[in-house]
Amino acid sequence: MANDPLSHTFAALADPTRRAILVRLAEGEATVNELAEPFDMSLQAVSKHLKVLEAAGLISRGRDAQYRPCHFEPAPLEAATDWIVKNRQIWTERFDQLEEHLKRMTHDKEKEKQR
Amino acid sequence: MSETPTSLGELTVTRIFEARPEVVFECMTTPSHLTHFWGPIGTSTPLEGITVEPRPGGRFETVMVNDETGEEYPVRGVFVEFDPPRTFSFTEAGVEGGMTTAIVFNDLGDGRTETVTHQTNVPPMLMSPEAQAGLETSFVKFDAYLATL
Fold it and tell me: pLDDT at residue A68 above 70?
């Protein structure tokens, strides 16, 4: 799990505060102070969440040592969305073929009866 | 075919088949049936690559082969639940941090079966009641955002 990027993405997103932080950052960059305010959290707690989001590649942080504004990085989310799309496709095609298979079974049975 | 909105890392596919639950369940858990439909379009699933040990803890393994390139996509699952003809579920430890697939077979009472397939690769430990509650609230906004990506 540790080396799997998609797991990192989903793990990072499993926390409601981190999702809320991302929703806020999707509107534009913000500093730790700006993020801490609406969430009524300590700077330390927000920093902890930001570290997880940064490790998952969901945000990047500016170089300005004092402010280090956070930017939202959509790429891992797109990968997560791709996963859903890909797997939905697999199951849809699989079930299409099962439907055909069931039809063939019924057809064969009726043929047998007619003999 | 209907599909409910999905949360991140979760997928639900609902489907109605013109056959009774016993028949649909058997098709989905018997190698001689699976070989006919398991691989999505462009792949096939040779009978010799399918292992079904029909019990909790038993293996549920298939190898999908790309028809053009011959590339193989093995699925190495282990049954968590096996309760014919109502439900079965399996986990794939090696896939994207652990993927779980659960299929429920609902008897529609008129010879048809509704299957609800729920797939998730969110590790179960993250699906705590708190996390679930979080899904309910903040995901509404987040899903709307995702839809714009």
Answer: yes
* Mutation to test the B interface, candidates A3, A8, A17, A19, most B Cβ within 10 Å: A19
Q: How far apart are CA B9 and CA B120, in angstroms?
A: 6
CATH number at residue B81: 3.30.530.20
pLDDT at B96: 58
Alpha carbon distance B3, B13 (integer Å): 5
The residue in chain B having the minimum alpha-carbon distance to the alpha carbon of residue A98 is: B37
Q: Is residue B51 part of a domain?
A: yes
Q: A1-73, which class in CATH?
A: mainly alpha
Domain that holds residue B51: 10-147
User: What is the tally of structural domains in chain B?
Assistant: 1
- Show the CA angle centred on residue A73, arms to residues B128 and A42, nearest 5°: 55
Structural domain contains residue B4: no
Arithmetic mean of pLDDT, A20-46: 87
Closest CA to B19 of A111, A113, A98: A98
Q: How far is B92 from chain A (nearest CA, A)?
A: 12
Domain layout of chain A by residue ranges: 1-73, 75-115
B120 to chain A: nearest residue by CA?
A84
pLDDT digits (tens, 9 = 90+) for B20-60: 999 999 999 999 999 999 988 888 999 999 999 999 999 99
- Mutation pick from A8, A92, A102, A104 vs chain B, by most beta carbons of B within 10 Å, is A102
